[in-house]
Amino acid sequence: MEPKIKDRLLRLPEVLARTGISRSTLYENMKAGRFPKQQKPTPRCSGWRESEIEAVINGEWDGGTNGLE
User: Fold this and answer.
1) String of b and e for 9-36 (b: at least 16 CB within 10 Å)?
2) Are 50 and 18 in contact (CB under 8 A)?
3) What's this model's pTM, rounded to 2 decimal places?
4) Which of 25, 26, 18, 21 is nearest to 51 (CA)?
5) DSSP state, 5?
6) Contacting residues for 34 by C-beta, under 8 A, at least 6 apart
7) What tens digit of pLDDT does each residue of 12-69 get?
């Protein structure tokens, strides 16, 4: 059985730094389904799964239908 990899949440500044896109572009793409949606583990905290951001950077993210969602 394959060990489960822990997937940490990245906050907005780190996502913007890794992807090189602006905040407004990120939210536009998220709304259009071209970027992963935020996860909200608590009412005052949100972030993106590191694995999904890596998939976006590598051109492998296809709207969450590749098993990452």
Assistant:
1) bbeeeebeeebeeeeeebeeeeeeeebb
2) no
3) 0.79
4) 18
5) P
6) 63
7) 999 999 999 999 999 999 999 999 999 999 999 999 999 999 999 998 887 766 443 3
d(CA 60, CA 39): 19
Rounded Cα distance between 45 and 32, Å, is 22
Question: What does each C-alpha distance from 46 to 3, 23, 32 come to in angstroms?
Answer: 26, 14, 19
The structure tokens 């970027």 sit at 35
Beta bridge partners of 45: 42
SS3 state at 22: coil
